[in-house]
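Note to self: keep these together.
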Amino acid sequence: MKSIVVTVALVLTGFMVNAQVKVDQIAPEISLPGVNDSPVKLSSFKGKVVLIDFWASWCGPCRASIPGVIKLYDRYKAKGFEVFGVSIDSKKKDWLKAIAQDKITYPQVNDKAGWYSKTTEVYGVNAIPNTFLLDKTGKIVAIDLEGEQLENKVKALLN
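Structure:
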């Protein structure tokens, strides 16, 4: 019986590990409502270096990271860098309030299903903030880079 439990646990762990996207994989499509309720597609940014940023208005670490993301976006957007914010807020008003308070100007979408959304499942997001850096072809080149490491990678991809 003990060996069956261990085997089942290993199989389930394997499924969970395979659920998260990986570096060198093309990023799965995301198409969710933006701030004006119109769908915004990740694929619409193909040809640009894109940082997918999973976050929520109620997440302290997410909100603390936003000023750095805004600074990076402002510095490199004219050179072909884009940030694609994916909120997992269940309440649209909270999401929109956070966008206004933090003065976020880069594209935002909202998956109101939160942790139970198809998007978080496909990307294997089980903690936020969670970021995925894509090259101009839409391939994931890094996961959860921050600060100077993120900026250096963005600069390298833009050159």
